[in-house]
Amino acid sequence: MGTSTGGPYLNTAAVTSPVGIARLLQMTFGCATFSLVAHQGGFSAAYGTFCMFVWTFCFAVTVFIIACEFTRLHSCLSLSWGNFTAAFAMLATLMSVTAAVIYPLYFVQAGCYPIGCQVRDFRIAASVFAGLLFLAYAAEVFLTRAKPGQVTSYMATVSGLLKIVQAFVACIIFGALVNDSQYGKYVATQWCVAVYSFCFVVTVVVVAFSVTGKTALLWFPFERSVVIYTFGAVLLYASAAVIWPVFCFDSKYGSPRRPGLCAKGKCPWDSQLVIAIFTYVNLLLYVLDLAYSQRIRFVSHI
């Protein structure tokens, strides 16, 4: 038995497996994106700040994940590592695709700037790498998702991944709510806000318990409770999907059409429309979540 050279302590699969390669690409593309923007591309306002936050945040967490898996230090953390990495990959996919759309939309133009074409070229290059970054995170989600018959982490299942998407869509709804949506005019629209808030909080709690691996400490069956909650969320979102459009777009309470004098970017009607659209999106996500949860509960016992 010779002395170890460190091989047993290092997990080379963390950087040589398909998932490991995807993470190395994420780190490379993320670093390239925010470096190009910080060097010459530039950013401004809340949209640019959001994009820079996405790229730096995802880069930092990806480096942390690679380092922990390569050195096997993740075994020392009080986390359900499989749930954590699956949840982050889904979240990073959603955040990176949002940034990949926002940055070129607001910061890239066809012509050159008065000071030359260099800034435009840097922004185009940053946009390309931002798109590649999204594809790298999407590849990890595809590679780590639960396969039929496979025993895996809850957050890697369709139901777990949908929880991340549901919370992300709720954040979009909250963003539109605070953008002068006038939700306080009626008790009915305040009910809708309560629905969005309640479902968001419970969904985040479900994700938090899964990621921290504390579900076994609960005095009630976690998975069955999640299915019951999902059914309740479907009913709550169905009520919001009826109430919100009525009190925002019916001529008796709101406006069926966008007011002509409404300023672009500061129009309550626009925010109300965004909220209505994403209310239906989240309703569909919760319905799919419920359908999948029921299928895996009953089919697996046949």
UniProtKB/TrEMBL annotation:
The keyword Membrane applies. InterPro entries: Marvel, MYADM-like. One of its GO terms (cellular component) is membrane. The chain crosses the membrane at residues 45-67, 79-102, 122-143, 155-178, 193-219, 226-247, 273-292. The keyword Membrane applies. Residues 14-149, 154-298 form the MARVEL domain. It is found in: Membrane. It is a multi-pass membrane protein. Keywords: Membrane, Repeat, Transmembrane, Transmembrane helix. It comes from the Eukaryota. Belongs to the MAL family. PANTHER family: MYELOID-ASSOCIATED DIFFERENTIATION MARKER MYADM FAMILY MEMBER, MYELOID-ASSOCIATED DIFFERENTIATION MARKER-LIKE PROTEIN 2. This is Myeloid-associated differentiation marker-like protein 2. It comes from Zonotrichia albicollis. The lineage of its organism: Eukaryota, Metazoa, Chordata, Craniata, Vertebrata.
